[in-house]
Amino acid sequence: MPKYVALFRALNVGGNNLIKMDVLRSLCETAGLKNVKTFLVAGNVTFESASKNATLLASKIEKQLFALTQRELKVIVLPLEHLTTIAKQDPFKTIDPTDAMLCVIFFAETPANTPKLPLTSTTEYFEVLDIGDRVAFVVARRKPNGWFGFPNGFMEKQLGVVATTRQWSTIKKFVAFAEKG
């Protein structure tokens, strides 16, 4: 049976849309998913399904999520092999991670238009290195106030698609976790 990952947008972030992982696991099982496992608390889930339609799987999870929370929350579902390929490519291998936050942004759908790269934000201090196959790779640097810029909202606005962001270190750990189970 094919393995998938589900990345939940805006779940358990900043004290909003709080859902315990056992509840999230149960929600996914109610949607018909098998061997459901959660990773960390920010809405990273692995599961198996006989379905080959990731969009349909996301829709089933979103319906269960709405029934639980009464909120329209997005879920991005990808085959595990897609996430594994991203991790093996290591798009950040030439970047010095010192004082940088390396981000992977996943899009709910393919953007209609892709901007010319590199795309930068001088106010948020980040640079988009690459965009392709419903994913973008971004290096965020510290702003003068000491905080890192967070590129998710910027990318959603630039590309007109819903997105969710994970740090590169989380992606590598999530792939290792998903491949074990």
Average pLDDT number: 91
Largest sheet: 5 strands, antiparallel
**Poorly predicted spans:** none
Q: Count all strands and give the number.
A: 9
Structural class: alpha+beta
Q: Tell me the series of helices and strands, N- to C-terminal.
A: EHEEHEHEEEEHEH
Estimate the strand proportion: 25-35%
Order of strands across the main sheet: 6-7-8-5-9
The 3D shape can be described as: globular
Distance between the termini: 13 Å
Helix count equals 5
Task: Note the quaternary state here.
Answer: single chain
The helicity comes to: 25-40%
Radius of gyration computed on alpha carbons: 16 Å
Question: What structural keywords apply?
Answer:
5 helices, 29% strand, 181 residues, globular, alpha+beta, four-stranded antiparallel sheet, 9 strands, five-stranded antiparallel sheet
Set out the fold topology.
Elements: E1 3-8, H1 21-30, E2 34-39, E3 44-48, H2 54-69, E4 75-79, H3 80-89, E5 100-107, E6 119-121, E7 126-132, E8 135-141, H4 152-159, E9 163-167, H5 168-180
Antiparallel strand pairs: 1-3, 1-4, 2-3, 5-8, 5-9, 6-7, 7-8
